[in-house]
Amino acid sequence: MAFAQAHGVAHTTFDSTFELEKIAVHFPSAQVVLRIECDDPNALVPFHGKFGAQPTEWEALLEKTKSLGLSLAGVAFHVGSGCTDPHVYHRAMDAAQDVLHLARKFGFEPHLLDLGGGFSYPLPPAIVAAVRAKADALQAQIPKLTLIAEPGRYFAETTCVHYTKVVGKRVRGDKREYWIEDGIYGHFADVGHGYMVATPLVVAKDDTAPVFESRIYGGTCDGIDVVVPSCVLPDLPVGAWLYFENMGAYTNALATSFNGIDAAAAPRVYKRAKTKGFV
To answer: What is the domain class of 1-155 according to CATH?
Structure first.
């Protein structure tokens, strides 16, 4: 917190009185943002109530903010990554609107609404429509209201393609089992968490070759290191290359060196796209 203040960070969130007391001591110049709980239990990555103040806590938190002499900038929420239900955003933005109006009763002039993150590309049209409609209504009520979001996954997810080699093979009847040099302790950590479904594609695939029921294991000694439990692939030799698209978010950042396999040290190749940016 002291580091953030020293480097010009202006805002920080809170959802408890203990956090407010800490901010008042270590970051008193902060523009504080009340994070409210608006989880979607059906999101791909739900937060299970870990973050955010509940409605019964809002008033006491605003009162505490006032008594500590802190400046309230606005409200934040995060419904969880991979939310596809527009009604969740309706509820979240309605709750944010209630907090913004409540804050005014305490003498604050909130001007910021953070819509959170967890967005994948492309955004579901129903989500876009829901957020836009609510945003327009809110900004009509509070003309100076600024809306921001946290689109890290949205920008990063589709920018990377991950290549990995088949290093082991077993044939049992008509079924093929492969071991690759990566796994859930490497770039496929979110598979292990249940947050990702990995889809293998074959480099230099022969579309006329017969295909077989297949399973892909990670290279570690752990029995749960299964990257793809079931898929259909042609008969691949050891040394064949597979690739996985949309591997730009929560992959290399979560990779470990478990079992001596340093997945994070894998070489990277950057290619300039035909359009602006990189792929």
So the answer is: alpha beta
Q: How far apart are CA 64 and CA 174, in angstroms?
A: 66
Q: How far apart are CA 164 and CA 136, in angstroms?
A: 46
Active site residues: 221
Q: In angstroms, what CA-CA distances link 184 with 72, 168, 244, 259? A: 41, 16, 14, 12
Sequence spans of domains, the chain: 1-155, 158-257
Tell me how far apart the alpha carbons of residues 220 and 76 are, in angstroms, rounded to a whole number: 40
Fold of 158-257: Lyase, Ornithine Decarboxylase; Chain A, domain 1 (2.40.37)
Percent of the chain clearing pLDDT 70 (strictly above): 97
Measured distance CA(127)–CA(121) in Å, rounded: 12
Distance CA 225, CA 205 (A): 25
- Which parts of the chain are beta strand (E)? 11-14, 31-35, 71-76, 112-117, 146-150, 162-172, 175-180, 201-202, 211-217, 226-234, 241-244
C-beta separation of 238 from 171 below 8 A:
no
Kindly report the length of the chain.
279
pLDDT digits (tens, 9 = 90+) for 215-247: 999 999 999 999 999 999 999 999 999 999 999
Output the pTM of the full model. Answer: 0.88
